[in-house]
Amino acid sequence: MGKNETMRFEHLTILQIRYLTELEQMEKGRGTIGAIAEKCGVKHPTVSRFFKSCIEKEYLTQSLDFTEKGQMMLQRHQKVVRDVRGYLERSGITEGIDDVLKGMVENIDYIRLEELARSHMRVNKGIQMKKEEDGIGEIEELIEYGNHMVAISIMQTDGSGRSMAEHGFEHLGIVKRNKRGCYLELTIKEMHEISRINGRKMTGHLTGLKYLQGDVYKIAGIKNGKVRIPISAFCFRKFNHGMLQGNLMITVSCSVGEAHMPESTARLIFKL
Prior knowledge:
Blueprint: H1 14-25, H2 32-40, H3 44-56, H4 68-90, H5 97-107, H6 110-118, E1 146-155, E2 172-178, E3 181-187, E4 191-194, E5 201-204, E6 206-213, E7 216-220, E8 222-223, E9 226-230, E10 235-240, E11 243-254, E12 264-271
Antiparallel strand pairs: 1-2, 1-12, 2-3, 3-9, 4-5, 6-7, 6-11, 8-9, 10-11, 11-12
Helix pairs in contact: 1-2, 1-4, 2-3, 4-5, 4-6
């Protein structure tokens, strides 16, 4: 199998990667599928159907041994999981890291994830900064020209957990610096929530985002499913392990059932 061919492996869920990892480590025999299902907290038929599809795709043999193609497929998935988890840990994302990891691995193109995990650019090396600095000014001048992917977190205002507002955005944002300025671009996505009033499923999109700059809330327009926020609006208070952490208070509103989903205030965080 050529190098380019490995790029065509379909995405697996985190659980499916675990099924295969358990299979790889387990001595094969009667009861193998049942043992894996029990370890992973799922039903026997769920694992059995998945392994059957792997046999059809020639990832596994009838005796549940890995083919060369299957071994390469699993190794790639395992590497992506390790690398993305490492990136999130370096970025200081600890609260709900498994949920963020699951969302990224299952929904974002692997090539983009690999680029993100390798990224360490972003701050111009020619500019020296002291780690003990508590505040940082003129952040735009520190960022290299170009587009830089970042993982975003949207936390409750007190930092106690993840905000529901996070469901309205893709997990990756892009820090862009060009002749027009420097800003963080977020991509909105459809939200799925359950009404607290009648228990019905609701869907919708974010319709508005305001951010707190100084003492004033400013409106960030939504255009073609994108939201742009000036980097100058963020407060950067840490410089650790070569990374800067941006922090911004935001308020978002949703298009569906405002009586059930009122404006939500949260804290938007990302690291460079």
